[in-house]
């Protein structure tokens, strides 16, 4: 069943005196348990596409539907609960340790403190970031920041996870592990939509998409002749 559907979505941004077309009749679908990756060059609009898909920005035209519901009408009730949005900047400098940062959104939703900490701790373990729990956010490297941001979203038990450029700035040896983590989350039934500027990050995607001059196409990046499966047979990532 289709969980996320974009139908002829258009989006414009002001670029000085110019009105720049970022998305032009962009359409795509993503099912529960699927990993979709959008490749595009810098300023291609890939981050804007994800923000529209998550309900952070509204489309100028077309429709975005989540589980059959118009996201424009219900985004405030879905974003942060059924839809998790991740970027590497945690945005917290309040003297909190990482575990508390992950638990904050749960506490804001009325979850009891002990339960919030337990769910935050479980999410940190799931993404392989338990060792970061007592650290300050500013101490995290790029790969750790990605994992912690994923934990913060996962603690809220979303059905759709939108991840903006999860491998950007991440050291080469860590990139495959991040991609394997996203693949494993999709295999557990979460729909995962990620963006990337690196063609190798398309490996393992169920839906490999290219965004160029506002056009979204269901084809891999030109640098990648074949999208190869990237799966582990068993065990947590």
Protein model, in words:
The chain has 237 residues and is α/β, with parallel strands linked by helices. The protein has one domain (2-217): Rossmann fold (3-Layer(aba) Sandwich). It is built from six helices and ten strands. It has helices spanning 46-54, 71-78, 98-108, 113-126, 142-154, 172-187, and strands spanning 2-15, 18-31, 35-39, 61-66, 69-70, 83-86, 160-163, 191-196, 207-212, 215-217. The strands form two sheets. Strands 6-7-8-3-9-10 form a six-stranded mixed β-sheet, with helices on both faces. A four-stranded antiparallel β-sheet has the order 2-1-4-5. Helix 3 packs parallel to helix 5 (142-154) and helix 4 (113-126) crosses helix 5. The longest helix is centred in the last third of the chain and has 16 residues, at 172-187. The radius of gyration is 17 Å and the shape is globular.
Outline of the structure:
By secondary structure, this protein is of the alpha/beta class. Helices cover 30% and strands 27% of the residues. The chain has helices at 46-54, 71-78, 98-108, 113-126, 142-154, 172-187, and strands at residues 2-15, 18-31, 35-39, 61-66, 69-70, 83-86, 160-163, 191-196, 207-212, 215-217.
Q: CATH homologous superfamily - what is it?
A: P-loop containing nucleotide triphosphate hydrolases
Proportion of residues in β-strands:
25-35%
**Dominant shape:** globular
Regions with little confidence, pLDDT below 50 for 5+ residues: 224-237
> Can you summarize the main beta sheet?
6 strands, mixed
In total, the number of strands is 10
Q: What is the fold-level CATH name, i.e. the topology?
A: Rossmann fold
- Amino- and carboxy-terminal Cα gap: 26 Å
Mean pLDDT: 86
């Amino acid at each position: 069943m289709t969980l996320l559907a974009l139908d002829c979505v258009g989006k414009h941004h002001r670029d000085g005196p110019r009105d720049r077309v970022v998305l032009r009749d962009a359409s795509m679908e993503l099912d529960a348990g699927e990993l979709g990756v959008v490749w595009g060059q810098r300023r291609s609009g890939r981050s804007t596409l994800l923000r529209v898909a998550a309900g952070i920005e509204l489309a100028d035209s077309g429709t975005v539907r989540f589980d059959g519901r118009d996201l424009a009408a219900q985004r405030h009730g879905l974003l942060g609960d059924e839809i998790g949005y991740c970027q590497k900047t945690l945005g917290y400098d309040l003297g909190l340790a990482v575990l508390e940062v992950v638990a904050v959104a749960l506490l804001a939703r009325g979850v009891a403190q002990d339960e919030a900490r337990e769910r935050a701790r479980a999410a940190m373990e799931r993404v392989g970031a338990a060792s970061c729990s007592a650290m300050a956010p500013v101490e995290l490297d790029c790969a750790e920041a990605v994992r912690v941001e994923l934990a913060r979203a996962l603690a809220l038990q979303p059905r759709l996870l939108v991840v903006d450029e999860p491998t950007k700035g991440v050291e080469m040896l860590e990139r495959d592990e991040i991609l394997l983590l996203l693949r494993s989350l999709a295999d557990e039934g979460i729909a995962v939509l990620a963006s990337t500027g690196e063609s190798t990050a398309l490996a393992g995607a169920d839906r490999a998409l290219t965004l160029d001059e506002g056009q979204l196409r269901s084809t891999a990046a030109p640098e990648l002749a074949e999208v190869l499966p990237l799966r582990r047979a068993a065990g947590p990532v």
